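CO-FOLDING WORKSHEET

Operator: S.A.
Ligand of interest: 2-oxoglutaric acid
Run index: 279
Mode: holo prediction, single chain
Checklist:
[x] sequence pasted
[x] SMILES validated
[ ] output reviewed
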Amino acid sequence: MEIQVVDYQDKDAGKLFVQSLRETGFGVLINHPIEQQLVESIYKNWYQFFSSEEKHNLSFDPKKQDGYFSTEISETAKGHANKDIKEYFHVYPWGRIPEQLKDEILTYYKKASELAAELLDWVEKYSPVEVSAKYSEQLANMIKDTPNTLLRILHYPPLSGDEEPGAVRAAAHEDINLLTILPAANEPGLQVQQQDGSWIDVPSDFGSLIINIGDMLQEASGGYFPSTSHRVINPSGKASKKSRISLPLFLHPRDEVVLSERHTQKSYLLERLKELGVK
Ligand SMILES: O=C(O)CCC(=O)C(=O)O
Ligand SMILES: [Fe+2]
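OUTPUT RECEIVED:
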């Protein structure tokens, strides 16, 4: 099955969306409640931030994981040799945020988190009974009042030609969290791996919202909802001189939420961050 582009206003939206998640790990929403104007303004304002020296004053805190992560310390995807060609900023409502960008980004954080709770309700509603029986509490409840949901603003700089051989914007990886909510970026490049191992572009029309499953939902659903590998490929030709900005919201339950017999959110996250080399 292909990734479905679902109209959020459609009466069967929930069913179609969850079916797409189940079969591909991804679903795409159009006509959704997140205003494109807000997304575009964030892209513009944070591009300015990444172009300024101010970012170096907000360098990330290794314990709290908030703040600015430079290209030099950017993540290395599990099983890969090179660092990704990206810099990013981690926004948590309790964390450091550049003063002039605070109101806007927290407005987005709140709106996207509210929509996310609704999407988790859809996932719950269309989980077979034997799967929902595994959820330790309602999925939407797992993220209620959580301090752990992470909004990452990513900047993939133009390619200089001096990149390490084999380095890419984002090497193939799976997300760690429950669900990821990602507005289409300003440039293409996002791909998902299909069951036969081949890679296809994720439908990313500007204005649409891409949602994918992370490992925590896979864990909580006993594998029913697969977290699929995705990546961001390097542009070529003229596009390689352009920056790409993207804005994933990674939904994380509260620390103590039980995901499975093996893991709480906290124990699971710690294990995964160590693998990424950022903890
Ligand atoms: O930039 C994108 O489009 C995707 C980013 C991503 O997959 C991630 O940060 O986990
Ligand atoms: Fe990802």
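REVIEW:
Residues 135 and 276 are 27 Å apart (CA to CA).
The pocket of fe (ii) ion (ligand 2) is lined by residues 173, 175, 230 (CB under 6 Å).
[x] output reviewed
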